[in-house]
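Exercise 7. Given the encoded structure of a 126-residue chain, write a plausible sequence.
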C-alpha cells in the first residue's frame, strides 16, 4: 500500500517562498506519477502541479505557472513543490497524490490519482 506524507508547510509573508515535500513509501517512488492539489476554505480542491515518473513531463495550473516548480528525487522517494512569490490567494491545504502509470503520464484531475496524503496547511499573510 502506498503512503504519502507532506511536510514543509507553514506561515509565510506575501512574496516569500516555501518548499513542500511529499514522501512516498510502500512501493518504489519511480513507479508513480505525482501531483499536487490544494483546497482553500469553502472552495473545491484544485489542481496545482504534476510530474511524471521520469520527471521529463510536468504540468501546472495557470495560476501558479512561473512561480511554482514541481520536482522529484526518486532515490529519496520524495516529490517537491517549490513555491515562490507566494500570494495570499495561495493559502490552502496542499495535498500530494500519486498514481502508477506510464513514464510520461501526468494527471490534472483528482479522479486520476489513487493515493493521497493527509494534506498540509500553507498560509500566506499580507
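Solution.
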Amino acid at each position: 500500500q502506498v503512503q504519502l506524507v507532506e511536510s514543509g508547510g507553514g506561515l509565510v509573508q506575501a512574496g516569500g517562498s516555501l518548499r513542500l515535500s511529499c514522501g512516498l513509501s510502500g512501493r518504489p517512488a519511480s513507479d508513480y506519477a505525482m501531483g499536487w492539489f490544494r483546497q482553500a476554505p469553502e472552495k473545491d480542491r484544485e489542481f496545482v502541479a504534476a510530474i511524471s515518473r521520469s520527471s521529463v513531463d510536468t504540468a501546472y495550473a495557470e495560476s501558479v505557472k512561473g512561480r511554482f516548480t514541481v520536482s522529484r528525487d526518486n532515490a529519496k522517494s520524495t516529490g517537491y513543490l517549490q513555491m515562490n512569490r507566494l500570494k495570499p490567494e495561495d493559502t490552502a491545504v496542499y495535498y500530494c497524490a500519486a498514481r502508477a502509470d506510464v513514464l510520461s503520464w501526468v494527471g490534472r484531475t483528482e479522479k486520476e490519482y489513487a493515493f493521497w496524503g493527509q494534506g498540509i496547511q500553507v498560509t500566506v499573510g499580507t
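Remark. The CA atoms of residues 57 and 106 lie 7 Å apart. Students should compare their own answers with the one above.
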